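Lab meeting notes turned into a lecture example. A postdoc, R.K., suggested we walk through two folding results consecutively so the class can see how the record format repeats. The first protein's sequence and structure tokens come next.
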Amino acid sequence: MDWMSELLPALRVILIIVVSGFIPFTAMSFFMVVIPQKEKEFTKSITEMGISTSRTVRDSYSVSRYIFPVLFAFLIFFGFITAFTFGGDGSAFNDNVFLSGPFFGSEDTQAVMNQSFFVLAFAFAGGFLWSGYNIIRRLVAYDLSPSVYYSAGIRIMLASAVALVTSFLLGSETTTNDLFSFKASLAGIAFLAGIFPQRILNYLITRFQEFFSNESVTEKSLSLYNIEGISIYHKERLEEIGIDNAQNLATASLTQLIAETPYDARQLLDWIGQAKLICYVKDDIERLRAIGIRSVFDLLKGNKDRIVLRELSDAVGLDTPILEIVHGQVKDDRGIVALYNFQENKNSPARDIIATRKIESMDFDNPPKEDKAKG
């Protein structure tokens, strides 16, 4: 078995290269393969809607924005995998605060430190697998933003902290009867902490807020969950670019959303239209949805007059003339009217043909250089 012991160091080095090299490899793949295709889809969407904009995909996905996030995640992954690869050889650890925690300075802390190292390894494994899955999923969806790499590194650190504190709370189990079940449960807890560290913290925070809740009715009515079609994954993605509620979404830039998110322009227009209506009517949104008015765009369809609006209000039990007021404001809002026209253009088959022909005539591999002589 001497050949295996000689081969083991090489295998450890290979493992370190594969795990830590995963980060820069995915970033390079994104810029070499995904960005050109994303540019084509962005140009097609804005052409279909008839939007004239100087914004480009590379404004949001420039290489400079990825340097520090990728380096941050790489160093975190490299440091952890190196520590676990060369530190898990069964040798005794010196007593230290990090591994022994509240048991630091006790007569026999070796068992506690071994257990801490054990849970950290499983927490890293869970965090790495989830981060790897998330990065690959976002890469395939043309949505690998810089924040994904920051999130991957922070997930590893947060998972390690949660798993380590849990280990300290449970203490070190040394009895022979429950030793196997205890270690198995601890491994599962640490692994799940690597996959869902934020959800564990959110659960604790939610339980705490039940006693000190000051969330107003308005804050609940403006939640992104009140928009049809938005799931927890959509909500988390929108929060990455600073959209935390319906008001943020209602005032967001359409071209920025198309460039920086993986969602289709039709879907984004529908969400924005719903968000704008929610900002107007708040808790009355469910009543309006019951009669087919989901967004501000529905108020512009059919040239609704005052009599029709009053009949709609009576049908859903609205005692106030809110629908007439909102209709007037929507009709006079040039921004909403422009978005409505964009939506109509997006749904036009003729626009789709024009956009496709324009895309086919463009060379994304050799984009035109900027004229430096221009101001």
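The second example is placed directly after the first for contrast:
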Amino acid sequence: MKLSVKKFALSWSILWGMAILIIGTANMIWPDYGSAFLTVVASVYPGYEASQGLGSIIVGSLYASVDAGIGGAIFAYLYNILPE
């Protein structure tokens, strides 16, 4: 069975981007929620700072989407080329 590289990359891109968006939004409402996780995410994505407002959440979500899309594409490609 082969994976569609484009579909796998898009799926992971949407999933990870939405995860960062939801956790970041929840952190704006409840400041203690996910703060340690968002601090780790902020250390990986330049320009994103945890608890800095809606603009920062959007930047983090975009970084996460691109990151997961690239990672998902690499994973699916490697899965397809490796022998069974």
